[in-house]
Amino acid sequence: MFLLCSMMSTKYWIFFFPFLLIEHKAISAQEFGGVKTGSSPPSVSSILIFGDSTADPGNNNYIGTPFKSDFSPYGRDFFNHTPTGRFTNGLLANDFIAKYIGLKEIVPAYLDPSLTIDELISGVSFASAGSGFDPLTPSISNVITLSDQMNHLKEYRRKVEAAAGEAKAKEVISNALFLVSAGTNDFVVNYFALPVRRRSYTIPSYIDFVSNGATQFLQELLDEGARRIGVVGLPPMGCLPVVITLFTNHPILDRGCDDNFTSVARDYNQILQKELDALQVRVRSSGARIAYLDAYTPLEEMTLGHKYGFDVVNSGCCGTGMVEASFMCNPKSPVCDDASKYVFWDAIHPTQKSYDLIFQSFRPALDYLVGN
Hints:
This protein is an alpha/beta fold. It is about 40% helix and about 10% strand. The protein has 15 helices and seven strands. It is globular and about 60 Å long. The N terminus is likely disordered.
């Protein structure tokens, strides 16, 4: 694998391309207990989540895509060491958020057929690993589009109406915390890895295209009755181990972040924040609240500053940590002894510890959204 990585060139894209199609414990009681549970206002009825692998707790388990993580060593540090379909060793940031606002300890996948109506009402994730705001992005990996995630929300509403009545369904939607986390696949998988969008868009125009897609999706949520929406920005994409491996000149010896990718994330986040501010002004009279959730800063601090006690910041815990994700991180893969020393679990996705720290950075925005 090291030899193959060092020989990376155009002819190797067919071999390595699948690992880019995914975007970006039982855990010990002591570690999970370190997250302080907030007391949410009674009006926060549910948590409803949309996006990609940073928010997918297992929806891809139930669709015809190879991009799954419902096998070990994924979930190695989850409750009962269960691989749930989360692309990490334990919990996602959204699980920490759900506990923080006092709703539930983990957010289940909407497509899980075993969910009770009470579990549905208190919150689910519609997210699908590999998805994005650009409609082309999910088609590459045959995953659930944002448009279909919106359709699932409408279906969700019908299920709640059938079980608890129209008034209850309206109340759940209007008092839910909505979270949206997507965009990395649009750039890493789609724009930079394939030629299609680059033929029609410059980097600045594609940033506008994706951010407009995000804004349109948020408007659809508002039209469906959402009144509290948190939107996660892009991470420092140039610091993802797979990007370092595939897009830098010295992927083995010098594994520094690629600033070209990271600068795109910065530019996108700035534009996204401006669009969110403008949208907030337009909907203020309705009582809606919209907030930007900054994932860029905490991950940059972890990867560039060796902050928070991480020993390894530029490769993942699973396999070589350079390209492995999804089916390349599997029961036969070597795995590090202590994932808490790593920023990344596989070559794309953060560890549970990293997601906990990202969640901590979200807390001021979350408090604004839920009214704490």
